[in-house]
Amino acid sequence: MISTPSRTVVDELALRHLDAAYNLGRWLLGSEQDAADAVHDAYLRAARACDTYAGGNARAWWLAIVRNCCLARLAVRSKDTRNVAIDGDPAAAERWLPHTGADDIEERLDSSRRTQQIDVQLQRLPVVYREVLILREIEELSYREIADVLETPMGTVMSRLARGRALLQKALTEDGTTGAPHGL
Predict the structure, then answer these.
(1) Is 21 left (phi over 0), alpha (psi -120 to 50) or beta?
(2) Are 68 and 151 in contact (CB under 8 A)?
(3) Whole-angstrom distance, CA of residue 124 vs CA of residue 122
(4) What is the pTM of this model?
(5) Predicted pLDDT of residue 119
(6) Which stretches in the chain have pLDDT values below 50?
(7) What is the C-alpha to C-alpha distance for residues 62 and 59, in angstroms, rounded to an integer?
(8) What count of other Cβ atoms lies within 10 Å of the Cβ of residue 142?
(9) Cα separations (Å) of 135 from 28, 41, 48, 143?
(10) Which of 2, 6, 69, 177, by CA, is between 20 and 30 Å from 167?
(11) How does DSSP classify residue 95?
(12) CA angle, 176 as apex, 170 and 113 as ends, to 5°?
């Protein structure tokens, strides 16, 4: 672990985890441009605050800064604009979910429809559940890393994850999507 990241280390850290930061921002903000802006803001914050880093998991430190920048952007948005779909491109959402291996066109269409429904329902979840689901299911962070990013106890992470999964499952069931999507 890095105890005190210098500006160079922040550069390396940001580059190494750029995709994770961007994905987190995109899922939290629902916009590729806003995510890119949030990651840029996070980089500037990290560069300015690199001397105040207290040690620990550098990746979690970086993602916590990205999260905070995203939450700041969400705070200035109106309540209605928070639940905008991440994008209209189902192929982009499909890229983040496990592939089904379906080569039949009907199966592929059904998979694309399910992916869109998951995307829509995920965007409708409150941020506290959505961010935990994204960090665990897509970014594959450990519970400890998520707790570090969110600056919350691991028990809270586990309960939010369970509640988020249940809410997503319920929403998908009510929306007509059957079965547990991708192990959620």
Answers:
(1) alpha
(2) no
(3) 5
(4) 0.63
(5) 86
(6) 1-3, 82, 84, 96, 98-100, 102, 180-183
(7) 5
(8) 14
(9) 11, 20, 25, 9
(10) 69
(11) T
(12) 110
**Chain mean pLDDT for the chain:** 80
Which residues 6+ apart lie within 8 Å of 33 measured at CB?
Answer: none
Any idea which residue has 């803001």 for tokens? 41
Pair 141, 149: CB distance under 8 Å: yes
**Burial class of residue 171 (count of CB atoms within 10 Å of its CB; 0-12, 13-18, 19+):** middle
Q: Which residue has the tokens 């905070």?
A: 68
pLDDT at 82: 47
Which pLDDT value is given to residue 41? Answer: 92
> Do the Cβ atoms of 69 and 26 come closer than 8 Å?
no
CB atoms closer than 10 angstroms to residue 152: 14
pLDDT at residue 98, as a whole number: 47
**Structure tokens of 68?**
């905070």
**Among positive and negative, which fits the CA dihedral 34, 39, 40, 41?**
positive
